[in-house]
Amino acid sequence: MRGSGDRGSGAHSDTPSPAEVLRIAASGRAGASLQQRVLQDLLDAGQPCTSRQVVDELRARAGVAAGRDLARVMTRLAALGGRLVVAGDERYPSLLADAWPELGAPVWLFVAGVRPPVERRPAVAIVGTRIPSLDGARTARRLGAALAEAGVVVVSGLARGIDQAAHHGALDVGGCTVAVLGTGLGVDYPARTSPLRDAIAASGAVLSELLPGVGPRPWQFLERNRIISGLADATVVVEGRETSGALQTARLAAGQGRDVWAVPGSINAPTSAAPLALLRDGARPLTSIDELVTCVAATAGHGGHADSPAPTTTLSPSARTVLDLLGPVPASTDALVAAGTLPAQVVMVAVAELVDLGLGAVTANGVVRV
Amino acid sequence: MTSVAEPAVGVARSVAVVGLEAVDVAVEVSMSAGLPGFTVIGATGVAGRQAADRVRAALAATGIRLPPRKILASLAPADVPTSGARFDLALAVALLVRLGLVPPGAVAGSAFLGELALDGGVRPVPAVLPAAAHLAARDVARLVVADANASEACLVGGIEVVAMTDLSEVVDVCAGNTAARSAVPLPPATATALPDLADVRGQGEARRACEIAAAGGHHMLLLGPPGCGKSMLAARLVGLLPPLSEEQALEVLAVRSVAGLLTGPVPSALDRTPPLRRPHHATTAAALLGGGSGIARPGEISLACHGVLFLDELFEWPRRLLDALREPLEEGRVRIARARATVHYPAGFLLVAAANPCPCGGAGSCVCAEADIWAYRRRLSGPLADRIDLAPRLQRLRADDLVTGAVGESSAAVATRVAEARAVAVNRWGVPNGSARGDRVRATARREALRTLGRAVETGTLTGRGFDRALRVARTCADLGGADLVDRTHVLEALAHRAALRSVGVDHAAGRRGA
Predict the structure, then answer these.
(1) Are A112 and A207 in contact (CB under 8 A)?
(2) Which of A257, A356, B376, B453 has minimal Cβ neighbours within 10 Å of its Cβ?
(3) Which residues of B touch A341 (CB under 8 A)?
(4) Is B511 within 8 Å of A362 when comparing Cβ atoms?
(5) CA-CA distance, A205 to A157, in Å (whole number)?
(6) What ipTM score was computed for the predicted complex, to two decimals?
(7) Are residues A146 and A245 located together in one domain of the fold?
(8) Residue B4 domain-assigned?
(9) Hey, are the CB atoms on B493 and A195 less than 8 Å from each other?
(10) Tens digit of each residue's pLDDT (9 = 90 or more) over B403-453
């Protein structure tokens, strides 16, 4: 089981120690792409892909960090309250370990937070566009809340839009949520998210495979997606455009043998392109939040929770008329006036009534049904 | 020219205007032995020397040579900021009295306002209207002004207005050689037709918002892509407002007079149309708020008093300028402090702003980056945003709508409702609903209406401060509907008209809240 880079020290166990791995990681040369290449080479050579094997191989190819670099990384990590978790270690998330090594899960993770997703709890990733519709953001938030309430860990990527809405949803109900960053720990990216990151760390964990302080680079986010899907039993795509990164996350999840759910959207909305493409390719349609919650929570023996039915009984006739005209695509007052027989003033009152009852919501482009 | 007995001091009256306040000024001229010269004291800066030179030249052109003695003219009281050329005529008359060319009795009950041309002609000056109003309330029987100022001075009754063409006419009239030409008011102007609301196709939301804004004096932000008719609506809002009272119309004219905008003849019947001012977003602070050196002149916000101030492209305006609108919006007047005087101008305008929903303007097919939209919309935050109550969203009309779209109500029909609702509100608390006190408005609302508002605050749809503001709008909706009490429907409508204010970017609020 000893790798070619093994220098024969008797202290070597089957799992490399964090200190040993940190020396390699701190070199900054053993990134995700090298790790995956090493894994692939080992697989091709028919060799066992244990973390020991990979670490030794990485050391051989990337070398180790100079003492100064190592010290800098350690200081930084300590200042952030983070720690290094190595594949094979019992603190390495078990779901991610299941996906390792065949799908290129990371050899190590930098983790900050109180409840890293270690123990076997069901987890669901919620991903989607950074520019969602109001309906999409609301769906993500409700999904996050419902899942967290059912005891499911909500995994997402901290991006604006759907990701943050999902985190917020879980935090709303005091649940556990995990953010996988596309930057190193301790970088305020997306800008001004540090209160949210703190809240996430206090509820679950914020983690990254990158060295603390590494800034945003486009490819890092694509590589990060495999960790999101790997950490979750199922991945839900709420909204996304044709080229959305959420599509990639979903395909990785499918490749890792995980469930992929997609929230069906209007065929007229550009934000529906990704979920509709996934549905066409066989993803499970998310027709109700309860369905997902029940399905996922069943794994852990938790029951789902039911939404209280909307109080439609007190609706005025005009509000009911308008409600019937509404959908997820924003409708302007003029469009509602043109579509029905009500004057603008009555339509506006009806819309406000629907908003008051939580049945409608106003967006910049008009009103949508919630 | 016959010489009469020379008095020791020649005196003529004139009027200074500081802000809209008129102040009596006495012009005194004395002659004494000494180095020959003509000095004006009491005037600020170089104005005195220039006035002396103009008067000397005008007298020479009229054939009057100053004797080679030391001539001293004084503008009293000396601490009143006096600048400009408005005292030229009074200076010349006081000098003529001192020289014995005009009997003191001929000018005793008169006041003089006018600039002198070098050829002896009398030229118009600004701020004649406030001066005339001031004099009419005093023991002054006649106001002598330039021909071009005569119609303006005639607007206030109670004072005889005499128009003078040049200095020789002044001398002839005062010496009793010719009769004074009393100015007569010009015939009323034919009313110019205002643009009609019926020209606006569709836009039901915005039409209703205009009606509410006019009835309650609530400030409004029109949101819509370029070319959807925002300026068109703003121009029609003026026609929905009730006509100005005589007092208001005079105030509007007085501000224009002080600003030097009343240059042409002014018809006798006051223009009762509320003013519409639409300054461009490159306007300076001095031009918007009032300013200038010496005594600050009124700015666009004062010229829009009792009418509409339309700020197009609101998000293009510098934040600093928008924030400066807070005091005028709050107090209905603006205070401008300068080294020589602090003046107040009225500034009780209805603010109508317009903006594109995002920097590119393309609603629906927007190509802006999210960060750009946020930066763009952030300019509205702060004091101004808190004072806007109506934010109708306008849609760009399709070509066939323009041709076949239903024709809406005319301005006249809407203006009737507006006038009735306004009268009800003014009867109730003396001011339009937009300026009514919150606790008094709350007392006229049903409990269910207040509960709906409270719920909106709880869900974050409405800020705490927005509670009373939305309720005032609801009060106006109730008045427009002829209801005594504000009920839930009115509150819901008020909330609907605010909705876009919050959603100026609320699409992403779910992800933002608590972050």
Answers:
(1) yes
(2) A257
(3) none
(4) no
(5) 12
(6) 0.71
(7) yes
(8) no
(9) no
(10) 666 677 889 999 999 999 999 999 998 999 998 988 899 999 999 999 999
